[in-house]
Amino acid sequence: MSNTMVKIASTRLGRLSTRPIRLTALLAAAFMVLGSLFVFNGTATAQSAGMDRTVVVKQLLDKHSEKPVGMGIATNGGVIELFSSNDGATWTLIMTMPNGKSVMLGAGQDWAGAPIIAAGHKI
Fold first, then answer.
1. Closest C-alpha to 104, from 86, 85, 78
2. Residuewise pLDDT in 10s, the chain (123 residues)
3. Which of 9, 38, 69, 77 maximizes the CB count within 10 A of its CB?
4. What's the predicted TM-score (pTM) here?
């Protein structure tokens, strides 16, 4: 028997049958490719369906008392913003694209910002 064949017990027929490993691997790869298409399509749809930034910022302020505490420019041209409540109880990370639409990247609790160290000469 070649090493590309494997014996698999067939519970329905009560006997051994042979099946190529390649077929199983091919089916597994096909399911992974199809599954990734759905995941990436869903991500693209979610990002294109973002909300207007002014609405997002107002909701974060009204519902969670969160204000911007940090920001940066992503390589894709989006602006990443971190919002946090004054006591750090809640935080939200959003990305706003040049078209003004924002999507939430993450949210959580117990934000602890890094201490700010003043630059300058020692006294």
1. 78
2. 444 444 444 444 444 444 455 555 555 555 555 555 444 444 444 445 789 999 999 999 999 999 999 999 999 899 999 999 999 899 999 999 999 999 999 999 988 877 777 777 766
3. 69
4. 0.56
